[in-house]
Amino acid sequence: PSVIVKKLFMDGVMVTVNHEIDFEKAQEIALDYDIIAEPEEKVDVIAELLKEDDEDESLLVSRPPVVCVMGHVDHGKTSLLDCIRNTHVTDREAGGITQHIGAYVVTINDQKITFLDTPGHEAFTAMRMRGANATDIAILVVAADDGVMPQTVEAINHAKAAGVEIIVAINKIDKPSANIERVKQELSEYELIPEDWGGSTIFVPVSAHSGEGIETLLEMILLTAEVAELKANPKRMARGLVIEAELDKGKGPVATILVQKGTLHVGDFIAAGACSGKVRAMMDDKGRRVKEAAPSTPVEILGLGDVPNAGEILVATENDKEAKHFAATFVSENRNRLLEETKAKMSLDDLFTQ
Ligand code: GTP
Ligand code: MG
């Protein structure tokens, strides 16, 4: 690729390895290598790709639960995850690597759980809208000294709208001002009634600081997941969701993907929203390079030509052409929405620069 990119550069065509060049140019370059390039027929694959797949039951195998940690600011979502990861990080050697993605896999008694931290609720809104199936279980974190707050209510609404099972973690019970009963009382107004009050919602009092209750919380997650019998076909082409994405100065567009169906491989052609490309490299949640990612696995991928929006659907395709076609169709079908987003973004930028 570098030789060709250099040659194109000399010819005045500025591209990177992820870009598309026109057919005439490709033909010209191919000729340098004594290859005669021929254009392929245009195929329409979008309909087929987005068609609701009737998965053959016999192809489905168990997959780990995807658990989203939600709640009001400062109620301890990240602390709770830190606590869970510190006591259960399987590979301690890699533990020191900075993880800027909010998705982690934890193994408990040989069973995996994928956790998604939600830093701002905006990302979750996109997820809820575009892929309600992303999360299997929501952990609603409520600080015992603060009780139900506006974002707690928002989180409840998001989880309910997405049809996601809610487990309540009453956090900070180590604090002298903690009042577990008050939290139960307040949440019952939102139809989250604890089992000991005759309801059906699991409540677990925890402390991210002392670690109290964490084991019980994990047990409850595994139990809930078991009942749900979560399955996916790992053999099909991958389908997933963009958790977050950014432009890295050195690496180019970097996207955190949650694989939902199928297996994503290095070398797969992909499209995510309006972007397309080819998976050049994949990193797991511990920063290790991996060659493939099975259902419920979060990975960071390199190789998209652009930065997709959080919440967009990612699809692996048969070839480059399909991936580009998918992205182009997405753009034409979502033109109005994308325009609105650009407008909103621009007005936000205006606000900040004034
Ligand atoms: P956002 O991501 O900003 O919404 O916050 P968060 O919910 O992730 O909260 P975070 O984990 O950052 O914790 C907020 C503060 O609460 C920190 O100062 C934590 O040390 C403290 N904290 C979290 N859990 C506990 C706990 O169990 N007990 C006590 N005493 N403090 C806690
Ligand atoms: Mg946090």
UniProtKB/TrEMBL annotation:
Positions annotated to bind GTP: 71-78, 117-121, 171-174
Recorded family membership: Belongs to the TRAFAC class translation factor GTPase superfamily. Classic translation factor GTPase family. IF-2 subfamily.
Protein name as annotated: Translation initiation factor IF-2
Subcellular localization: Cytoplasm
Taxonomy of the source species: Bacteria, Bacillati, Bacillota, Clostridia, Lachnospirales
Function: One of the essential components for the initiation of protein synthesis. Protects formylmethionyl-tRNA from spontaneous hydrolysis and promotes its binding to the 30S ribosomal subunits. Also involved in the hydrolysis of GTP during the formation of the 70S ribosomal complex.
Residue stretches making up the Tr-type G domain: 62-231
Region of interest (G-domain), ranges: 65-213
